[in-house]
Structure formats: structure tokens, C-alpha cells
Specification:
alpha+beta, five-stranded antiparallel sheet, 17 helices
Length: about 625
């Protein structure tokens, strides 16, 4: 739909008013994250009490920022897994799915590279940031053709949900606008014109440093950019089958409407998509208030109020007498006395513990990071650590939804065939580098993608390994409860299950038979460069092969003899052996002249000479025993 600039601005204004409560909540959570100074105002406090806080010491808790840092680390450090087909798919089908997996990893990497060039954090870091603090996520994903014809650009741009305006229909987004503030000089650099001297309205151009509101509008057909009531980008088809925006919120709470008289008004938009402070934002302020009271009392003990007596009651102190070494002169009837210290009620400690307990139950317990105020059992620690999953899982599910929508939008646009073949590179499931150029037809043949984000929780890996061991134990029928492929893919969430299976089989094959083990040792010695050791293993392997051939010959199962070379030379060398380890005959070197060519030449003597120690004839043995015949 073609819209005028004034119409787009009015759409954003109306939607901003309708979601004022939600955006106000985002601003308040932003203040917690930025550690805005606590002023003493807490929930339920009247204006007079809030105004009376002026002049007192106040403490600002840093726990909101610490909680964000922990959640950010858990989300960005999660194990990122992408699968398309199950482990039972045929190999030829798996090759197609592997190609699509590598294509998705490649476009995600190109998107991250583009964000880095723009001096922005990568996609997962920005998702963790907005999901944690805003409770929502928005962004744009599309392929863009370069102006110079150098191929397509992968555009994956996260948006700040605080400044996104939208409208929903029966099938999802009808339109979406992202509002940003930019200087007139930046607008001119990007769009080639400065508002005020552009396409529609005549007049003087804006000052280069003037900050203007830029509205980036998308609907099911067009993309429009406006600023200062003018088109920066006139209605242009974006070439996507739907609005090229991915979006969502955190949690399972729907948008609920309640009746107010004869009108229906939204009552829960503030809680529609919650941040990490949903259960603790008021407790943080109450904790800061308690700490402020203690800080004020501490400051009074350091410089307590003083009671001064004088004859006429007008004496004052010109200096701070609480500092070390300060002297003061007092006349007749004058005296200075520190007033009695004010102590807080003993119930304050009980309230402080209650507030801290609610903060831990509404966020991440301190025990997850080894911080314990008192001794508790190991079972209690594990129970507390398990609560981390209930806090982190909704945020990871939101990030997974974002990745799924991004992959769906980009693959859907690519398979339309409007772009040249993308050349992509990166690291695939097995953490091996790839460089592919997949056609739209090949990507269209791949299966459906599915993402996983596995947070690395305390003791989580150990628990999964123990569970995997239980799955392999025989059940009541004597069979394992699950196959190895299922354990690797579904339970352990391994990304490269096929390579792991092949590696295990190869490892077993290397030691399955004595000959295979000897060959593995030989190859290891060769790879290590120890040629002397390699010759020993080569000789032992050669003996094994010869013994095996002799046994087969005795059984009448001798294999065919090796073919002679074309020049009548020696047989071809066995595969896998370097030339320096082969016998001289297979190296093409004939035996030397004389007995030196024998395997055990011994001493060289004339022909016919008996071998020393050889048995004598029968007659000679009889004669030596004195039993010679009549003829002597």
C-alpha cells in the first residue's frame, strides 16, 4: 500500500499512544539497567513523602546491572545448534540438508559481518540485550542487491523495540515502522538528499547538525522511508512474500482485554512481553530505600548533630570539630555536646532479609555463583540452581523464535530465484570450515530448519552425561532404552552426530584386529617422523601378512599373486607405505654380488665345504663310536 509521509507519522503517533504503558515500563527498566540515581521514591509513596526525601543520603543498588550481566552471559554463551533432518534420514537426503544447514550458517555469518562493519554487536548479542531489557525483539531481514552489481548483501538488522510501531492482522504483521533519530548530514550521506530540498516539499535545506526523526516503513509490498514530512525513499517494492520483519515477545502471557463500562480497553499491555525485572523491579527500589536509611544513619554517626549551649543561645561553630586535631574555644556557660545516636528498628534486618529473598527467587540465586551467606546442604544448592532454567528458558525461546523467523525470511526470499547464487563461507555443524555456492533450487530441496539454544547451566553437562549413560543401559527387555543416535541428537544436543559416529567406528576399527592395530601404530610412527620405529612396525606387519598368506595357501584359499610391472620388474608396492620402508626388491634395487645379497650371508667359504656343526654321515658316526665295518 502506498502511504503518504503524514499518514506514516500519524500511524506511529496513534500506536505510541495506545502502547504508552508498555513503553513507559521499558523506560523504567532502562533506568534500572543504567543505575539511575535512587531518589527515595518507592511504590505506594505519596507525593509529600517523596518530596521530603530531598536532602537525605540515598543508595543506588547495582543488582539490576549485575542480573543483566549474568543473563547476557548465559544467553550469549549458550550452545547454538541448527538441525534440519533427523538422524534416521538416508545419506543422500542428508547431503541436501547439510548443504542447507551450511547455507543458513553462511547467511547468518554474513549478517554478523555486516553488523561488525557498522560497529554494532553481532546478532545474538543484540538479541540478548533487547530480550533481557525490553522483553521484546524486532528486526529486519532481507537480501539486497548491490548498486554496483556485485551480488547480494545479507541484511539482518535488529531494532530497539522501544521505538517500533506496528499493526497486527489475522495472519500477522500488516505494517511495521522503526523510528530513529539522525542528523541531516547523515540522511544526506545515506539517501543523497537533505530534507527541505528533496523530492516533495520546496524550501531551505535543514542544518547539517539538526536531529530529525526518520521513519522506516514496511508493509506486505513496499518499503518507504520518510523524514520531516518528505520521502527519503519513495514507495519501493521490497520483493519479499511478506513483511520482512521478525518480531515477538518474552513469556506466555497473551494480550488480555477487560471491560470498562460499555468500552473494551486493553489492561495488560504493560505486562505483554516482560523484561528480566518483571518480578524484582519494585524490590530493587525497596532494597535501595532500606540501604539509604542505613547510609543516612551512618553519615550521622560520622558527623553527628550537635547541641551547643551559650549564655545568649547564639553561639555557632565556624569549623567541623569532628575532624581529628580540631580545637575549639569555649567561654563561660558554653558547651558543645553530640546528640544521642539514632538507631534503626531491629525489624529492619527482618525486612531486609525478606526483600533479598524475593529478589533471589525472582532472578538468579546467589548460590549459582558460589555466594552463600550461611551453610546449606548440597541438595538445597542444586534445587536453587535448577531455578535458573525457569528464568533463562523464556528468554532463550524468544531468541530461538527470532532465529527461526530470520532463516525463514531469507530462505523464502532466496528460493524465489531473483538473486544470483550466493557464495558463503563459515563453520558448519562439525566446526569445520566450509565454502559453498548453493543454488536456489538446492536450498528449496532442503528440509525444515530447527534451532536450539542450550544454556550452559551449573552442573548441566554432568547431569546430561549421567542421563545418557542411563539411556544406554538395558531395559526390562534387555535392550537399551534409546539408540545412540537419539541420545546424541535429542538428549546431548550434539551438532555433528554423524561425524561422531563415524569417528567412533574408525576408532574401533583401528584396534579391531592385530593387523589393524599394527597398521595404526605404523601410521602413527610415520606421522610422528620416527622412521626407525616405523621400520620395526613395518617389518612386524609384513610378517603378519606373510603368515596370513601361508595359512590361506594351506587352506587352498591363497589370493592371486601380485601383478608384475610392465617392464618385468618387481611387484607393485603395498599401499600406504612410504618408499623408504619397502624391501630393496620392491624399491627396484637388485641384490649385491655374492653372498652379501642373502638375508644371513655368514662367512664366505668355497662351495662344497660342510657347514660347521652339521651332522656327519652314518659311516662316520659309527667309526667315531668304534663300530666301524670289517673294511675299516
Amino acid at each position: 500500500m502506498r502511504r503518504e509521509p503524514e499518514e506514516i507519522v500519524q500511524l506511529c503517533t496513534d500506536h505510541g499512544m495506545a502502547t504508552h504503558g508498555l513503553r513507559s515500563r521499558m523506560d523504567a527498566d532502562w533506568g534500572l539497567y543504567m543505575l539511575e540515581a535512587f531518589t527515595g521514591a518507592i511504590k505506594g509513596q505519596d507525593e509529600e513523602s517523596a518530596a521530603a526525601e530531598v536532602g537525605y543520603h540515598h543508595h543506588t543498588s547495582s543488582e539490576p546491572r549485575s542480573l543483566y550481566n549474568k543473563i547476557f552471559a548465559l544467553m550469549t554463551g549458550a550452545k547454538h545448534i541448527l538441525t534440519i533432518s533427523t538422524s534416521g534420514d538416508p545419506r543422500n537426503r542428508r547431503e541436501v540438508d547439510n548443504l542447507k544447514e551450511e547455507w543458513i550458517w553462511g547467511v547468518l555469518r554474513q549478517g554478523d559481518d555486516r553488523l561488525r562493519r557498522m560497529m554494532q554487536p553481532k546478532l545474538l548479542n543484540q538479541l540478548a540485550y533487547y530480550i533481557a531489557l525490553r522483553g521484546w525483539f524486532f528486526g529486519r531481514s532481507m537480501l539486497k542487491k548491490r548498486l554496483n552489481g556485485g551480488g547480494a548483501v545479507v541484511d539482518i538488522t535488529p531494532w530497539d523495540p522501544r521505538h517500533v510501531y506496528w499493526s497486527l492482522g489475522e495472519d500477522g504483521l500488516l505494517w511495521c515502522v522503526y523510528k530513529t533519530g539522525r542528523k541531516a548530514s547523515q540522511i544526506e550521506s545515506e539517501y543523497g538528499l537533505r530534507p527541505g530540498a528533496g523530492l516533495r516539499a520546496p524550501g531551505a535545506a535543514r542544518d547539517a547538525e539538526e536531529l530529525l526523526e526518520v521513519y522506516d516503513y514496511y508493509d506486505e509490498e513496499h518499503n518507504i522511508v520518510v523524514a520531516a514530512g518528505e520521502y527519503l525513499k519513495s514507495p519501493t517494492p521490497h520483493g519479499m512474500p511478506a513483511v520482512p520483519v521478525w518480531y515477538g515477545n518474552v513469556g506466555n502471557a497473551p494480550l488480555v482485554s477487560g471491560a470498562s463500562g460499555s468500552d473494551i480497553k486493553t489492561t495488560s499491555d504493560i505486562d505483554w512481553g516482560e523484561s528480566i525485572y518483571s518480578a524484582t523491579r519494585d524490590n530493587y527500589k525497596l532494597g535501595s530505600y532500606i540501604a539509604s536509611v542505613l547510609l543516612e544513619l551512618l553519615s550521622r554517626q560520622r558527623n553527628p548533630p550537635k547541641k551547643i549551649r551559650s549564655m545568649d543561645g547564639t553561639k555557632t561553630l565556624d569549623q567541623d570539630i569532628t575532624k581529628t586535631g580540631t580545637d575549639i574555644s569555649l567561654g563561660p556557660g558554653e558547651d558543645v555536646e553530640a546528640m544521642e545516636f539514632i538507631e534503626t528498628t531491629k525489624d529492619l534486618a527482618i525486612l531486609w532479609q525478606a526483600v533479598q529473598g524475593e529478589i533471589q527467587r525472582g532472578s538468579i540465586p546467589y548460590s549459582a555463583y558460589g555466594e552463600l551467606s550461611f551453610a546449606i546442604s548440597g541438595f538445597a544448592i542444586n534445587s536453587l540452581n535448577q531455578s535458573i532454567g525457569s528464568f533463562v528458558t523464556p528468554r532463550l525461546d524468544a531468541a530461538l523464535s527470532a532465529y527461526d523467523q530470520i532463516a525463514t525470511l531469507l530462505t523464502g526470499q532466496y528460493v524465489m530465484g531473483a538473486y544470483d547464487v550466493l557464495s558463503l563461507s563459515g563453520y558448519g555443524q562439525n566446526k569445520k570450515y566450509f565454502n559453498i555456492a548453493a543454488t536456489p533450487e538446492q536450498i528449496a530441496q532442503g528440509g525444515d530448519h530447527r534451532f536450539y539454544l542450550e544454556a550452559q547451566l551449573p552442573q548441566d553437562d554432568l547431569g546430561r552425561l549421567q542421563g545418557a549413560s542411563l539411556f544406554r543401559q538395558p531395559g526390562p527387555d534387555g535392550r537399551p532404552l534409546a539408540s545412540d543416535d537419539w541420545i546424541r541428537t535429542e538428549w546431548l544436543r550434539m551438532r555433528n552426530e554423524e561425524d561422531i559416529r563415524d569417528s567412533i567406528l574408525l576408532q574401533e576399527a583401528e584396534t579391531a584386529t592385530p593387523k589393524a592395530r599394527m597398521y595404526s601404530l605404523l601410521r602413527g610412527a610415520i606421522n610422528a617422523g620416527d622412521m626407525e620405529m616405523a621400520k620395526i612396525y613395518q617389518f612386524e606387519l609384513y610378517k603378519m601378512v606373510q603368515q596370513e598368506m601361508m595359512q590361506l595357501m594351506l587352506m587352498g584359499l591363497a589370493p592371486p599373486q601380485p601383478q608384475q610391472g610392465s617392464n618385468g620388474g618387481t611387484p607393485a608396492s603395498p599401499p600406504g607405505f612410504p618408499p623408504e620402508l619397502l624391501p630393496l626388491a620392491q624399491q627396484g634395487v637388485g641384490p649385491p654380488e655374492g653372498g652379501a645379497g642373502l638375508s644371513n650371508p655368514g662367512s664366505q667359504v668355497p662351495p662344497g665345504t660342510p657347514r660347521p656343526g652339521a651332522q656327519r654321515s652314518v659311516a662316520e658316526r659309527l667309526a667315531a663310536a668304534g663300530l666301524g665295518g670289517p673294511r675299516g
